[in-house]
Design goal:
TIM Barrel; 215 residues; alpha/beta; 4-stranded parallel β-sheet; single chain
Length: 215
């Protein structure tokens, strides 16, 4: 497992962020995440200005782990890299995009939910996969079933994860971390409710500690 995957595993939770006002909100949001004990962000390219948001976070907090999510093209990879992104997350498995990232030397976690996805990912030499959309694709039961023929992978489920089921997911040995937007909803970010975001992050970190202390 590479150093980026190790850092994500150590944190246990990755906030998945869509910023509608990147210039206004990127830096205070990063500050709120760090204050809550989650110095990590997956900034999705679903919103315009994602690269600007990544650059602002990295510049303000160089030690923070910032990556790009919902990446679909090589152009977006280049944009994310230029902004200082340290990892790439894709919604599906695109072998060409994976190889492009590998050539560029940046960690990539592609969305995989089927045996064919996993098999292709194994051929590509990947170790950590995003399982997306997690709840809608069979959830924890499917992740456990898939880990039987593919025990070499560590899984990062994203989609439908909340404080209600975070502990259950993290209790599964195949899972290294969970992606979630429950602590960074549009309502919270657009409303600039930084203190609430920090508290949700703290609650997430506490759950990670509880699960791993019993592991």
């Amino acid at each position: 497992m590479d150093s980026i995957a190790q850092r994500i595993t150590a944190l246990g939770v990755v906030p998945v962020i869509k910023l509608n006002h990147p210039q206004r909100d990127a830096v205070p949001l990063a500050q709120a995440l760090i204050a809550g004990g989650l110095p990590v962000a997956e900034v999705t390219f679903r919103a315009a200005g994602a690269a600007d948001a990544i650059a602002a976070m990295v510049q303000a907090y160089p030690d923070m782990l910032v990556g790009a999510g919902t990446v679909l093209t090589e152009t977006q990879v280049d944009s994310a890299l230029a902004a200082g992104a340290q990892f790439i997350v894709t919604p599906g498995l695109d072998a060409q995009l994976v190889q492009y990232c590998q050539k560029k030397g940046i960690a990539i976690f592609p969305g995989c939910t089927t045996p064919s996805d996993y098999h292709t990912a194994h051929r590509l030499g990947l170790e950590v996969l995003k399982f997306f959309p997690a709840e809608q694709s069979g959830g924890l039961a499917k992740i456990k079933a898939m880990s039987a023929p593919f025990p070499m992978f560590r899984i990062m489920p994203t989609g439908g994860i909340s404080l209600k089921n975070l502990r259950e997911y993290l209790s599964c040995p195949a899972i290294c971390a969970c992606g979630g937007s429950y602590m960074v909803t549009s309502e919270l970010i657009d409303g600039q409710k930084w203190a609430e975001i920090t508290e949700l992050c703290k609650a997430s970190v506490d759950l990670v500690k509880v699960v791993r202390s019993h592991g």
